[in-house]
Design brief:
- This protein has 355 residues and is of the alpha/beta class.
- It folds into 2 domains: 5-277, Glycosidases (TIM Barrel, Alpha-Beta Barrel); 287-354, no CATH class.
- The chain is built from 15 helices and 8 strands.
- The protein has helices at residues 18-28, 56-71, 91-105, 126-140, 158-163, 170-177, 198-208, 223-226, 261-273, 279-291, 293-301, 303-313, 316-327, 332-341, 349-354; strands at 5-9, 33-38, 75-80, 111-115, 145-149, 183-186, 213-216, 248-252.
- Strands 1-2-3-4-5-6-7-8 form an 8-stranded parallel β-barrel.
- α2 (56-71) links the parallel β2 and β3.
- α1 (18-28) packs parallel to α2 (56-71), α4 packs parallel to α6 and α9 (261-273) crosses α10 (279-291).
- The chain is globular, with a radius of gyration of 20 Å.
- The two termini are 37 Å apart.
């Protein structure tokens, strides 16, 4: 069973251009990717400066992309992260939120994400506060579907270390309080889950009182450590048997929009082929489809350097050879590799704290 597949542009660092987004939608829609959630951390009008209205030019660009999604048969959605709104959901905050929702409604949203991720959350009544906010939004938004991302969206204790100890029974209270029609996102046992099991998802379903909407943090490569690597390999650890246990499967794509198509295509193949899925063969097919045979061969031959060694693990001589190899191709994916080699996608800790 193939669940609803989709793209989440939810990473830190340099966001995609509008043409990169449209090209990604057009490339993946035929493979079954049916939704796009626009939520780059760099869009401050959705996050730290969410109270400020979008300038006309940016709103028009969003509207044009929304139409491109609809023309491709893809649901368009936005992930709104009303930064620390739960610390003061007063009349002034509600007025600002209503104004932002009106702007977003003008885009013709199919989906609206309400994201509480990556912000302080160690409040005993956090779930109750967030339930109130999500219901308030759902009552006013014209979006057909509302999807909430919890502050603690994984079992991974790294969130407790960074954002404060999660309140007792947080996920259970959130699931009990939210209307069953509202989806809840989940990244798995880890922030960047190596695998998903039916048993784990069944447990989370019980806690949430609904099937989780997967926010899969692969092939995303943001952050000081991951941005120094390209994530190109085929999906593994997502057996087709998890399909009946999830509401949808969204992938947080890498900073490189064209290269992200390679692993994305393999996930669709994994669900389609089930027990007959072979990750290496799937990678090769996807790479040829996205890159053409010659560039695909060059990427496969250098995969150990691009994905495993990364910028810190390759020598200056290896970097020079990689640069020469990929400079020979007039292809947007080759240009992404060259930009990555030159450090254009490297993200520092400061960006994680300010976006």
């Amino acid at each position: 069973m193939t669940p609803e597949l989709g793209i989440i542009e939810g990473f830190f660092g340099r966001p995609y251009s509008w043409e990169e987004r449209a090209s990604l939608v057009r490339a993946l829609a035929p493979a079954g990717y049916g939704f796009y959630l626009y939520a780059p951390k760099a869009d401050a009008h959705l996050r730290r400066r969410w109270r400020e209205p979008y300038p006309d030019a940016e709103l028009q660009a969003l509207a044009a992309f929304a139409e491109a999604c609809r023309q491709a048969g893809v649901r368009f959605g936005v992930g709104l992260s009303p930064y620390e709104l739960f610390l003061g959901f007063d009349a002034e905050a509600k007025a600002s939120l209503a104004a932002k929702l009106a702007q977003l409604d003008s885009l013709g949203l199919a989906d609206l994400g309400v994201f509480f991720d990556d912000m302080k959350g160690d409040l005993p009544d956090l779930a109750d506060r967030q339930v109130e906010i999500v219901h308030w939004i759902a009552e006013r938004s014209t979006a057909a579907r509302v999807i909430a991302c919890p502050s603690y969206y994984t079992d991974d204790p790294v969130l407790d270390r960074v954002f404060g100890q999660r309140p007792a029974n947080y996920l259970e209270n959130l699931g009990a309080g939210l209307d069953p029609a509202i989806q809840i996102m989940w990244t798995g046992e880890e922030v960047c889950a190596r695998e998903f099991s039916a048993g784990h998802l069944a447990r989370v379903t019980e806690q949430m009182r609904r099937k989780p909407f997967l926010w899969d943090n692969y092939p995303v490569n943001d952050g000081p450590r991951m941005s120094r690597h390209l994530h190109l390999r085929a999906f593994t650890g997502r057996p087709s048997t998890i399909g009946p246990h999830i509401a949808a499967h969204g992938i947080n794509t890498a900073s490189q929009a064209v290269l992200s198509q390679i692993p994305a295509l393999t996930l669709a193949e994994s669900y389609r082929d089930g027990a007959d899925y072979h990750c290496l063969a799937a990678f090769r097919r996807a790479a040829v489809a996205v890159l053409g045979p010659d560039l695909a061969d060059g990427v496969e031959r250098t995969l150990l350097l691009l994905e495993d060694a990364g910028l810190d693990g390759i020598t200056p001589e290896q970097k020079a050879r990689l640069h020469a190899r990929f400079a020979a191709f007039d292809h947007p994916a080759a240009r992404e590799i060259l930009a990555w080699l030159d450090g254009a996608f490297v993200i520092g800790a400061e960006e994680l704290q300010t976006q």
